[in-house]
């Protein structure tokens, strides 16, 4: 049995670090883990996503369409973009803070956050959707840079990460994150 999680965002939001924290937390529990990252145009604000497969049933790093147990998205449009990978009754944990693409800001199709959130609610249902108030998290923590860890904590508490708990993630933070950021990330995890 495996747990399949997709972490998605745009460049600079910490999807790669979140993937490393989740994988390390699972490995410290003695669970087999496979990961794959696609970062492409991340340095230019493009899509970033990681596949994390936890458990003995994970034979390859990539999650097939309709096979993800959870999507943890640091940006709502990226959550919507990854929905084809979500299994029926899978869970989505997302930030409510948009990162408006350059194309929308320069006259391309508009970024319609209410429409995106409505689509997510209708696609996965209120029961399987956790929306994190990014502005409130930033006010509490004093920075938006730890939103990735806030979302991991929310996902763990919602049961979206399978056997990985918030305590497991806290241990991974202590072992992985640079010492100057450990306290911030622990506070973010517990938010």
TrEMBL record:
Residues 11-189 form the Pyruvate/ketoisovalerate oxidoreductase catalytic domain. SUPFAM superfamilies: Pyruvate-ferredoxin oxidoreductase, PFOR, domain III (SSF53323). Pfam families: POR (PF01558). This is Indolepyruvate oxidoreductase subunit beta. Keywords: Oxidoreductase. It comes from the Bacteria.
């Amino acid at each position: 049995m495996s747990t399949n999680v997709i972490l998605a965002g745009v460049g600079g939001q910490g999807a790669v670090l979140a993937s490393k924290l989740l994988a390390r937390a699972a490995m410290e529990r003695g669970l087999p883990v496979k990961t794959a990252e696609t970062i492409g145009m991340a340095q230019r604000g493009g899509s970033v996503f990681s596949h994390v497969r936890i458990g003995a049933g994970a034979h390859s790093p990539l999650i097939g369409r309709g096979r993800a147990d959870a999507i943890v998205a640091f940006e709502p449009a990226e959550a919507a973009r990854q929905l084809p990978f979500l299994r029926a009754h899978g869970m989505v944990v997302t930030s409510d803070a948009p990162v408006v693409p350059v194309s929308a800001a320069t006259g391309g199709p508009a970024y319609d956050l209410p429409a995106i959130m409505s689509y997510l609610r209708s696609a996965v249902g209120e029961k399987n959707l956790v929306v994190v108030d990014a502005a409130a998290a930033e006010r509490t923590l004093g920075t938006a840079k730890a939103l990735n860890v806030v979302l991991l904590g929310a996902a763990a508490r919602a049961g979206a990460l399978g056997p990985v708990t918030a305590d497991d993630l806290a241990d991974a933070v202590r072992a992985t994150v640079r010492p100057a950021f450990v306290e911030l990330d622990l506070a973010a995890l517990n938010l």
